[in-house]
Automatic annotation (TrEMBL):
One of its GO terms (molecular function) is monooxygenase activity. The keyword Oxidoreductase applies. The lineage of its organism: Bacteria, Bacillati, Actinomycetota, Actinomycetes, Streptosporangiales. It comes from the Bacteria. Keywords: Monooxygenase, Oxidoreductase. Residues 8-94 form the ABM domain. This is Quinol monooxygenase YgiN. Pfam families: ABM. InterPro entries: ABM_dom (IPR007138), AI-2_Isomerase_LsrG (IPR050744), Dimeric_a/b-barrel (IPR011008).
Length: 107
């Protein structure tokens, strides 16, 4: 069964400064479970690429849910200081999903 919602997806790469890679890994890993429990979260995945970059893939029910997530204090602290943690700006994309998102059994 599918729904007619058009969720918002956020995805991209983050390249940590080499001396902060372990710290960035911890921060990002610590965000996974709390983010998955937030209202409106449909998917939240963190991957570590073999070249040291981290890849995030998130899907939110709506832009409002994503906006609320971006105010989560631990995430906000990281986002407000990205240049301290990363070698450059994130390669990030935010888009409305074109394909229907399947309804979850717990909804």
């Amino acid at each position: 069964m599918t729904t007619t919602r058009q969720p918002i997806s956020l995805y991209g790469f983050l390249r940590p400064r080499p001396e902060r890679a372990d710290e960035v890994r911890r921060i990002l890993t610590d965000l996974v479970e709390p983010s998955r429990k937030e209202e409106g979260n449909l998917e939240y995945h963190l991957h570590e690429h073999e070249d040291g970059r981290f890849f995030l893939y998130e899907v939110w029910r709506s832009q409002e849910d994503l906006d609320r997530h971006n105010q989560y204090p631990p995430l906000r602290a990281f986002l407000d200081n990205l240049s301290d943690y990363l070698e450059g700006p994130p390669e990030a994309y935010v888009n409305t999903m074109v394909s229907p998102y399947p309804a979850r059994h717990d909804e």
